[in-house]
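WARN retry 2 of 3 for item q-0093 after timeout on previous attempt; input resubmitted unchanged.
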Amino acid sequence: MISLAQQRFIAPLEALNVILSKGRYHKDKAMSFYNNKARDVLFRLEALCRIYRTIGDKKFFDKWYKEFKQLEDLLGDMDHHEALWNEFSNYKELKTVAQTNHLDKLAVFSTGLTETLQSQGWLNGLKMKSFDEGLNAQDWLTEEEDRIAYGNAICEEFDKVVDKYRNGELNMDHLEEGLHEFRRRLRWISIYAQVSNGLVQLKQVPTVPGTLAKYCTGEIVKSPFNVLPKPVKGQKTLNIQSHYFYALSWLIRHLSELKDTGLRNEAFQLLCKEARVKDKKVMQRFAETCVFDPADISTFAENVIDDFIYTDIIPERICRDIMRSVQ
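OK item q-0093 returned
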């Protein structure tokens, strides 16, 4: 009988196999992989490998985390350059340099992805077969041991990111190494819940405290990322009060908006410099598309993170709920 832990891998593996099958005979294999939402599936497999390298065979799961991450990174680069090309190709003053900086780079990463899929055995099934065989060979924990270890792993991830923020290592003045990295680490925690296959559950409360209502917007509450799979019949779960998890989801989304504004601004400034564009109308046109002033991004990020950690103590509250569940 396949353990509940191993079962968590089944759905994303099946989804990835379907996507790979669609691209096997496609002329543009990378774009087929990209357009069929492979990145979403890879995130799920990366998350499972990240969490099980702390629970199980570190060498095996770390190796496969890196395998999946290699593909996901290439897809991320494609997504980044496609988005910037789609935006800045609409500026006649910037279109030529945007083609060089983004459309041409999109093609480079696309070619690299196709080569990786073909040369490393992803398209012929060998790579996926190897991973599946490795999963079958693992010495999985008992259901209760796995439940406790899974909960501990989530709490340890929270502890790491909070510590790195408190000691200044994650500095919001740094867009990539600070803001983006902080958000990335929170996002993993959210995905751990999504890929738990029902182990993590949200506990609805009758009344949300007024201080936390700001996180529980209609968009967040109804987000598909916050609709977790139902547990297997009889399965013991890790229960998190829903408004705390919504706060996590809200912060991830808000930091994403801040991060995207910052990245767009960096790209815009570079394009203007290379195209030697100084027209204030062009600057104003871009500024009007920014929900946040790029100059204030680090301040905005720090304020909402401080509220999340120090005022509303969401990480501690989520971890407390998890620890209550395993007692």
